[in-house]
Amino acid sequence: MFDTVVQSAQLEYTPAVAQAAAPLYNKVKRVINELDWATFAPYILEINRLKKEKGAVILAHNYMTPEIFHCVADFAGDSLQLAQQAAKTDAKIIVQAGVHFMAETSKILSPEKTILIPDTKAGCSLASSITGADVRLLREKYPNVPIVTYVNTSADVKAESDICCTSSNALAIVESFDSDTVLMIPDQYLARNIARQTKKKILTWQGSCEVHERFTPEDIKKFRKAYPGAVILAHPECPPEVVAEADFAGSTKAMSDYVTDKQPQKVVMITECSMSDNVSVNNPNVEFVRPCNLCPHMKRITLKNILTCLQTMSHEVTVDPAIAVRARLAVDKMLAVKV
Ligand code: 13P
Ligand code: SF4
To answer: Residue ranges of the alpha helices (H) in 34-148?
Structure first.
């Protein structure tokens, strides 16, 4: 039914489209207003139809907007979960609803698959803070120090590293080495947050996430005063002074799980804006205070360019096979570490 409904409607919000999309709207109506839904619904139906026709899956990061996260994604999660899923899926085509390094990671893990990204400009301030040449220089300077590289980096950088990590597994990865000193690149704040939890000496790089570095300890104090009793959750890409003021710090998955498991009355998520919207959909009894910063890179991904991506099979993400093979060693080693 979806096929005929959408093709004949030509992406218009007809009564038939409204009816076909109603179960989805029922799920997200607390975070998407009716006016926006009228624009989104035809795209959602057409994307879901085309995805099936082409045998594609959509892997979406937790920072995607709710109409993507809840209505077209086949799998949604944090960076670690997306990498695990990319390694596992049988689909021949993966549409990465996320930023470029995530699509590259999928390609590294599944070189035989077609990996598409809806907007090639969806970058990341961490990924652009360091190059493979920088890592080679670090290796020369610290020849016996293992290099742990955040997945938020290019394939070239991963290829020069001993192992990758995400914010979900960073501590376990650092602890997996015998060495007393570990280089954690390129996020200086994630590195400093991990340094507070381990006896190892952590060296780092000057990179930072442009979304999380903007939060300050004063912000947190202000939220505590304005929203007494609210639980404050922060992402470990925030400066350590911010994390110290929060009640809990963890990856986007860890924050989402915290809310689902503990059902706090009121919560403040110190992270990207779509997190609260997405988590609130399945947690109707939790009140979300929504101070947040937008990631301009994540926000480049829209229903419109996901549809174009599936229609035109572009933009295909490729990684030089010689680099991919070396980068894969670092990603596979990460996936083998039990958290
Ligand atoms: P996680 O989803 O792994 O916590 O990472 C957050 C992030 O900034 C991804 O770009
Ligand atoms: Fe990069 Fe920060 Fe955006 Fe994540 S939120 S993609 S780390 S800039």
So the answer is: 34-54, 66-69, 79-88, 100-109, 132-141
